[in-house]
Amino acid sequence: MSTLQRPPKKIAKKTKPRPSDPHPVGGKPGEIRIIGGEWKRTRLTVASKPGLRPTPDRVRETLFNWLGQDLTGWRCVDVFAGTGVLGFEAASRGAATVHLFEQDPALVAQLKTTQTKLQASATQVQRGDGVAALRQLATGSLDLVFLDPPFESGLYEPALNAAAKAVQGNGFVYLEAPAKWTDELLAPLGLRVHRYLKAGAVHAHLLQLLTAAEAP
C-alpha cells in the first residue's frame, strides 16, 4: 500500500531592505530619530519616496562627534534636506540658523510639519534649488554646509564648488556620496578631507577649505 506524501512547502524568501533604503520594502513610511541635543530621541517621519535616503544614526553620531556636539551659534545650510534630519539635528544642538532647501513639494510640507512640531524657530524651510541658493550667499557666511544629494545625481561638483565659497575659513562641509572623494579630486574645488567614514553604501566626508599653503 503506497503512502501519499505531501509536497514540501516552499519557503518564501524574505526580502530585506537594502542598506540605503530608508524604509522596508512595501512602501510604508518609516521613522528616523534625532540622536542628540534639545530634541534627542524625537522621531521624524520618513516618507515613501524613491531615492530618499536619510543619513543613518551611526553616521550622524560620528559626524556630530567630529563637530564637537555643541553647535551653539553656528550658521548652517542643508542643501538637499529630504527628511531634514541633518538640519534639525544641527538645530537641536544649538545652531543659530539652519536653512533647509528641498524641491519636492510633499517633502517640503513634511519639513514644515516637523518644524512646527519641534517649534524649531532657528530653522527656515524653503522649496527650491539648494545649490542655486548656496551660490547667492555671501562668501564665508556659513559655518557648516550639509550636502547629501541623490546618489545618481550629477550635482556633487557644482554643490561642492558653491559650498566652498559659502563656508568660512574654519567651517565645514559635510558630504555624503556613493564613493570616496579623495584630496586629489577635492583640491581643484578648494577643499580637503578632514574626516572620513564608510558605513555600508554611505561614504561620509567632513571637508574643510584648503589653506593658502595647501592650495594647488
Strands in their spatial order, largest beta sheet: 5-4-3-6-7-9-8
H/E element order: EEHEHEHEHEHEHEE
Mean pLDDT: 87
* Class based on secondary structure composition and strand pairing: alpha/beta
Radius of gyration: 20 Å
Topology:
Blueprint: E1 30-33, E2 43-46, H1 57-67, E3 75-78, H2 85-92, E4 97-102, H3 105-118, E5 123-127, H4 130-136, E6 142-147, H5 156-166, E7 167-177, H6 183-186, E8 191-199, E9 202-209
Parallel strand pairs: 3-4, 3-6, 4-5, 6-7
Antiparallel strand pairs: 1-2, 7-9, 8-9
Helix pairs in contact: 4-5
Could you characterize what this model shows?
By secondary structure, the protein is an alpha/beta fold. The protein has a single domain, classed as 3-Layer(aba) Sandwich (Rossmann fold). 25% of the residues lie in helices and 26% in strands. It is built from six helices and nine strands, in the order ββαβαβαβαβαβαββ. The strands form two sheets. The chain has a seven-stranded mixed β-sheet with strand order 5-4-3-6-7-9-8, sandwiched between helices. It has a two-stranded antiparallel sheet with strand order 1-2. Helix 5 links the parallel strand 6 and strand 7. Helix 4 runs parallel beside helix 5. It is globular. It starts with 29 loop residues before the first strand and ends in a 7-residue tail after the last strand. About 10% of the residues have low confidence.
